[in-house]
């Protein structure tokens, strides 16, 4: 059975052990040190781009979302109290920025279809769906059938391997609500991929 | 259920749930799968195994998607960083101007700029990393009337295994000197707070970093 998940904090992206750590840089940036902020951006950009790309599905939108998130962070840094790490704080800001983008998207499928996704004919064989890139492309398309919240919760939990507690904090809803959304997302994705029934 | 933004964030809703012929809910079977519960029923029930197989198949596609996403590890953050910093540097964040020179002179420096110079000076001492650096402007914060009475409150991370009084004396001297030489300010006080002790690194030998 495959169910194990990593429950770690966002990866430590520090490559240069001689440079000041994130906490010091965040304090400096909060006091207006642009150079310190530039180091933080450089350090965290790749991981946040990966997160935003997973959430949004496209690289161009992901770059815009991450850029907006960093600018928002720069303006809000004086209020950043360091209760969480800078990386976790940014993770939350990027997630919320992406949620806004997802909410603003027009539905790609008729509304009725979102609730009851028929399995695509060519994908009805369970063996079929595990076949490489086609299956991945189908999964990408199926993600567009999810609501913004379902997609965000599923991506953070399933794709990014976060704990329910972490996802609840990042999205700003209860753990129970996250569980409900992940469950519904799994139902729709398994149906859409024809993986089950 | 047909909208794309869920109206409620409250309790677990079972709207999409389903009772399997064995009497178990799909949600429970999937929960057990996720928590890797060792359950005899789960192992033997064909309906539960079917339900779990769906998730296993989904998981195998997810692994493919995860592998593709991981390709961005080679992402070059340089252009994005440059774009972000271009905007950051254009934005005028409210900051405090501090007076330089005599009270009658109209010469000012932004606190953030002065702080950066003083942090860099502190970090010329081996193993020291500077954090918060606040300048106390005597003309604003005190009563003396000359800028020479301004002071600095500096937080540092110090290396373990060194004499802290000696270390802070050296940091104080460097900060003092930089304020005088680079900013033209004679500081009345340099208050240093050691906020952490950190293990030294290979680069933190005898010489500190040059500002």
Mean pLDDT of chain A: 81
* Total DSSP E strands of chain B: 5
* Head-to-tail CA distance between termini of chain B: 59 Å
* Integer tally of domains of chain A: 2
Biggest pleated-sheet summary of chain B: 3 strands, mixed
Strand content of chain B: 15-25%
> Helical proportion of chain B?
40-55%
Largest beta-sheet characterization of chain A: none
Number of domains of chain B: 2
| CATH architecture descriptor text of the largest domain in chain A | Orthogonal Bundle
Number of helices of chain B: 7
Quaternary structure state of the chains depicted: heterodimer
Q: Roughly how many Å is the radius of gyration of chain A?
A: 19 Å
Class by alpha and beta content of chain B: alpha+beta
Assigned CATH architecture of the largest domain in chain B: 2-Layer Sandwich
Which fold name corresponds to the CATH topology of the largest domain in chain B? Alpha-Beta Plaits
Question: What structural class do you assign from the helix and strand content of chain A?
Answer: mainly alpha
- List unreliable stretches of 5+ residues of chain B: 1-13, 141-148
Order of helices and strands of chain A: HHHHHHHHH
Description:
The complex is a heterodimer of chains A (197) and B (211). Chain A is 63% helix and 0% strand. Chain A is an all-alpha fold and 197 residues long. Chain A folds into two domains: 19-105, RNA polymerase sigma factor, region 2, helix turn helix motif (Rna Polymerase Sigma Factor, Chain: A, Orthogonal Bundle); 108-197, Winged helix-like DNA-binding domain superfamily/Winged helix DNA-binding domain (Arc Repressor Mutant, subunit A), CATH 1.10.10.10. The longest helix of chain A is centred in the N-terminal third of the chain and has 23 residues, at 34-56. Chain A starts with 21 loop residues before the first helix and ends in a 5-residue tail after the last helix. Residues 1-17 and 110-129 of chain A have low confidence and may be disordered. Chain B has helices spanning 26-34, 40-44, 46-70, 78-90, 111-122, 138-141, 164-183, and strands spanning 97-99, 108-110, 129-136, 151-159, 189-198. Residues 1-13 and 141-148 of chain B have low confidence and may be disordered. The longest helix of chain B has 25 residues, at 46-70. Chain B has 211 residues and is of the alpha+beta class. In chain B, β1 (97-99) and β2 (108-110) form a beta hairpin. Chain B has seven helices and five strands. At the A-B interface, α1, α2, α3, α5 and α6 of A face α1, α3, α4, α5 and β3 of B.
